[in-house]
Structure formats: C-alpha cells, structure tokens
Amino acid sequence: xxxxxxxxxxxxxxxxxSARSIIAEAIVNRLGQPKFTGYSAGSHPKETVHPYxxxxxxxxxxxxxxxxxxxWEEFARPDAPKLDFVFTxxxxxxxxxxxxxxxxxxxxHWGMPDPAEVEGSEEAKRAAFRDTFVTLGRRIDxxxxxxxxxxxxxxxxxxxxxxxxx
Length: 166
Hints:
Number of strands: 4
Order of helices and strands: EHEHEHEHH
Shape: globular
Helix content: 25-40%
Mean pLDDT: 90
Strand order of the largest sheet: 2-1-3-4
Radius of gyration: 15 Å
CATH topology: Rossmann fold
CATH superfamily: Response regulator
C-alpha cells in the first residue's frame, strides 16, 4: 500500500468518542509523526471528552488542546483528510453502518472494553483508562512497525486485523 505522499491518516472510531478513540488519536500523534496522523470520531459523540481521558493524557505529557468529541460524518465530507486506515475500537461502532469513506481506506476492528463503563473505586476506574492506553499503545506500535509502503493491500489488511486480536 502506498499513500500519495508517504504519510498515512488513521481514524479511530467509537460510539461516544470520549475515551478509547481519543486515547488512540493521542498515541498516534505522539508516536507516529511524521509518517502517521491520528484522528478520532464517534457514531453518537458525547458532549465532552471523558475527564479521566484528559487526566490520563495530561499525566503522560500528551497535549490535550483541541480534543473534542466529534461525529464520524466530519470525516466523510469531501474536504476531510484522506483516510488510509479506519479502526473501530468498540464493538457497538463496529456493528453500525459507517459512512462511506472516500478513497477506500483499510479497515479493521480493534475492539476493547470501554473504560468509562468500569464501576468501582476511583482507582479501579482510572486503572481501566491506563489499561486502555497500554493496550492501544501496543497495537499502534505494532501497526506503525509494519512496512506499510512495501506490503500489498491484502497482506497489510490481514496484519492490521490480526493486531486487533493482540
């Protein structure tokens, strides 16, 4: 697979776009530059990004300015960034009818539990957000290590889908 310019845009989708997808966007934008740019969106975006997401990212020295919960429709518009990869990170979004993405990006499901749904102590809730960060970080590291520009589309698609099961 080759992008037009050796740069790849990655969109992470979830229902609410307030935790998992935002965390994935932040990781890609920290680790992937200049080759990858991360984005996130939701099928039914929340009004705000979950406060534990912001706390976690701040605590790990990730910039948090500009994060907002947004609709995936923003990325189906003609003026949206050309997407090379689209990953669903929640089971509900994976089952919904997604918009048609211009340019036929590669898609895969990297489902994982929603840390915002964890009940219990404050520490248990925050630990769920940290675990989400670690799991997504590992998957994103694996994806970025693939020789994207050298692999045929089918081989690359198989590999990015396998990453979601790790």
